[in-house]
Write a structure and sequence with these properties.
Belongs to the short-chain dehydrogenases/reductases (SDR) family. The chain has 289 residues and is of the alpha/beta class. The chain has a single domain, classed as Rossmann fold, CATH 3.40.50.720. It is 39% helix and 13% strand. It contains 8 helices and 7 strands. It has a 7-stranded parallel sheet, with helices on both faces. It binds ligand L4XM7KOE and NADPH dihydro-nicotinamide-adenine-dinucleotide phosphate. NADPH dihydro-nicotinamide-adenine-dinucleotide phosphate binds next to helix 2 and helix 5.
Length: 289
Amino acid sequence: MAEDGQRFGLSDAELAAHRTVFAGDAMEGQVAVISGGAGGIGRAVAWLYARMGARVVVTGRKQEKLDALVAALTEAGHAARGEVLDVRSRESVDAFWTRVWEAEGRVDTLVNSAGGQFPQAAIDFSPKGWDAVINTNLNGTWHMMQAAAQRWRDAGKGGNIVNIVVVTTHGLYGVAHTIAARSGVIGLSKSVAVEWAPLGIRVNCVAPGAIETEGWNVYTEAARATYPKTNPMMRVGSAWDIAEACGYLAAPSGGYVTGEVLTVDGGGQHWGETWTTGKPDYFRTEDKA
Ligand SMILES: CCCCCCCCCCC/C=C/C(=O)SCCNC(=O)CCNC(=O)[C@H](O)C(C)(C)COP(=O)(O)OP(=O)(O)OC[C@H]1O[C@@H](n2cnc3c(N)ncnc32)[C@H](O)[C@@H]1OP(=O)(O)O
Ligand SMILES: NC(=O)C1=CN([C@@H]2O[C@H](COP(=O)(O)OP(=O)(O)OC[C@H]3O[C@@H](n4cnc5c(N)ncnc54)[C@H](OP(=O)(O)O)[C@@H]3O)[C@@H](O)[C@H]2O)C=CC1
């Protein structure tokens, strides 16, 4: 998958030491589940939540990525463990949630950071490619949300969900499949934020702009080079920017926030244009007098 095998984003050592505004006991005694927890954004969230006092359970498809993160967190004195989980399998998701409740006795926060897509012109999507993106980002997120909410309902105790999505306000060219999936997650989140409020469950989304992570290996060097220019700040963001947004929503600071989309994109939703597949000549208006 990696076009050039380049490494992007923050290391565990950087995440362990990054400055934060959050107190070390803001999530004391709590348990947080983070899907895609060993990826770029998920790993930053895992470090921040652990540093806020939470016990973190990270999931993903690759055992070795989870093992490396859990070892680094444990070595730094944090409580963490990892479980392999493909969020596309409802059966696996249900079994995972049963195991987590048995092992931890509680879960307070779920962050859905498992996700991704590949850049391609929509007209060329294959049925299998479309299904891969929809199953991962829409169905997978839903499996995790519903399984968590059912356990919270059965335990008579609430919790909160943070879904990592994509800025959908004016599309994102070259990844239309993911815009379809993420628009679904945003709509779903707003609806269940209302339906699940009586259960004490808050549901929010964080919409990142261009955040430098390993996930960027799926884009060409030429496409990546344009990302800093897709927002008025003229720079990309870091996974820590997204982690702190997730910290705000999970901690008591977010206690009165539900059904919200917190956009962290350097203003890209208001100005900027993103072509993940390269900008076609047709749209190069500056060359057309
Ligand atoms: C409006 C303001 C917006 C501001 C935004 C600013 C700029 C943002 C720029 C970047 C936007 C987003 C970035 C990110 O999200 S990066 C972080 C996320 N990480 C990734 O995306 C990692 C790579 N993606 C994945 O791993 C996906 O989850 C994926 C769905 C591809 C994985 O699923 P799966 O493991 O099932 O994938 P497979 O490899 O088995 O493939 C399944 C089928 O999918 C098709 N496919 C896959 N890759 C490609 C490709 N490169 N090109 C075409 N088709 C592809 C294909 O049909 C696969 O089946 P086959 O292999 O049998 O053909
Ligand atoms: N980085 C960016 O610029 C942006 C990112 N986002 C979104 O934020 C989220 C996190 O992205 P980021 O951390 O950058 O990307 P990464 O690719 O670094 O992380 C994504 C993680 O998701 C996991 N994952 C993918 N598919 C599955 C699956 N079916 N089941 C379980 N885990 C899965 C992967 O774990 P494993 O390899 O172990 O399967 C991977 O570690 C994604 O949804 C992404 O699309 C949104 C906008 C911009």
